[in-house]
Amino acid sequence: MIEFKAECGHTVRARDEDAGGVIRCSYCGRNAKVPDNIDSDLDFLFRDLDQSAQPVAEQRRGGWFRKRGKPLSRKGRTRGAFDPFALVLKLCYAALLIVIVVVVARKWILPLARGEGSVPWVNARGKEALPAERRTDPATQPRSPRFGLIRKQKPKGLYVASTPSGAMAYYVEESKAPPRGRIIEVAGVQQLRTDGECPRVPDGTYVVEIAFPWNDPRLNRYPEYWNFRRSVEHASDQQRRKLLEEYLVPDEAIDAFIAQTEDQIYLVRQYRATVRRGRFIGVQSLFLPKILKGEGPSFSIELLVNNHLPTKRAYEFDENHVRDELAYYGVPEPDRRFVVEALARVGVIPYVTPDGRTRLFKIGMDGGIFATKIIRETSQ
User: What torsion do the CA atoms of 95, 101, 104, 108 make, to the nearest 10 degrees?
Assistant: First the structure.
């Protein structure tokens, strides 16, 4: 099928065998010569346009466009007249095609030619264009977490945590605390809930006391705990202190003892907390069993983490940095992941390093900074 424009501007269709001959235009009735080849320039893009414009021409013949109340006559039209609307649409199509080509070239073709685009980290020679640490698009990465204790709101004041949770907690100014024994009967002592509230306290130094009844169900599940209780029941105060020290893992308590009332026995640990300039301060207390590893003073960090720590993580910190620090202090590689996991769950964990010292590894509640201190020069 051959399509071409007659002198009147109407699109005429002719059979292929009529090429070079003459046919009658169905629009104006005049003879029109059929060209030998009609597909030139950009006409192949606009055949659909010509088809869509044909009903408009039919409407004009039907009298839709009138002048002074009378149908427009075709007699006044000049031979070879063209449709300006069709020409404008053709120019628009051509401009759109150019825009598409430019956009595709700038977004995909040129970046690929420069070693960018879909292979952004390799240049034309196959070598890495960027170091490995910069290969990830920062825009697609999650935001860095706020290091430290994971809470909906940043804690302020005095925060006390215990493992296991739910211990009884009290605090009082150090100047009012007795030199030995419990602070619960001291005037001005305040009780608070562990792992929860953060009371605002004035600047100063305080004694914080954490206590568990010795028959607490969570403690009863510890290995050899009933044997420990039987030993404690009829022991003296000094013997009880030693038994408690031998059974529980050490932490940064300034005193640990067993207190007895008329109807109950308590495991007690006391801590010193200093508040300066109203800053957030935290106390982390451990009531965990010391599961000895062999005959030496070391205890099993693996069994402690797997069997007796909460499973939910409560701290965020730079784990790679902590692993490097543990390597510096001589923690064997198999134990490092358990120490890191313990810090993520409870924020503090003791460990007997190869030099015989007992170190306390700790994550700051406010800021997630790793720190360590020696709590025993030689393990006992």
Answer: -150
